[in-house]
Design goal:
With 173 residues, the protein is α+β, with helices and mostly antiparallel strands. The protein is built from five helices and four strands. Strands 1, 2, 3 and 4 form a four-stranded mixed sheet that branches.
Length: 173
């Protein structure tokens, strides 16, 4: 019987040691959870501090539109930009609107979708003009602003000869 008593005591001690070890594991898990929670709180505070930074660089849509319009006019066989009625009215009063024919949309991931309406030279190959406009606009926006272009939508509004375009623009002046 004494042997059984010792076994019982040993079993009791073993069970007690296992319980202590289990409690230690629970504490460790709880401590790790607390550490993770504290780390997340500190990270949130760091994010808030980053959000509250006094440094920022933003561009108005007009600036982006102007860069796009100027880049588009650099492409061979693009004679001009086609604007809306507001642009026409502004031109009638002598205002030159450099953003005419361009709209931009900023995506959720801070990339830019560009919509361009142009007048191209009669006889020019439109798909090549599209490729040139896309490359030029993407390059200029990246070089000047660091913005990435998500897409370029080019709309051909008119096809005329260079002489006809010059005649039309001289009549408006």
């Amino acid at each position: 019987m004494a042997f059984n008593t010792k076994v019982d005591v040993a079993d009791t001690e073993l069970e007690a040691n296992e319980a202590v070890a289990a409690e230690a594991e629970d504490v460790t898990l709880e401590d790790e959870t607390l550490v993770e929670a504290e780390s997340k709180d500190e990270a949130d505070e760091d994010d808030e501090e980053a959000d509250e930074s006094e440094d920022s660089l933003t561009y108005s849509n007009g600036v982006i539109e102007k860069i796009v319009a100027m880049a588009t006019r650099e492409v061979p066989h693009v004679l001009g930009m086609k604007g809306n009625l507001m642009h026409f009215v502004q031109e009638q009063f002598g205002a030159e609107n450099l953003t005419k024919g361009v709209t931009v949309e900023v995506t959720d991931d801070n990339r830019v979708v560009v919509n361009i309406s142009v007048i191209i030279e009669y006889g020019a190959y439109a798909p090549a003009i599209f490729d040139d406009v896309k490359a030029r606009v993407t390059e200029r926006l990246a070089a000047m602003t660091g913005l990435e272009v998500a897409g370029v939508n080019l709309r051909i509004e008119d096809v005329i000869t260079p002489e006809e375009y010059e005649h039309r623009t001289s009549q408006h002046e």
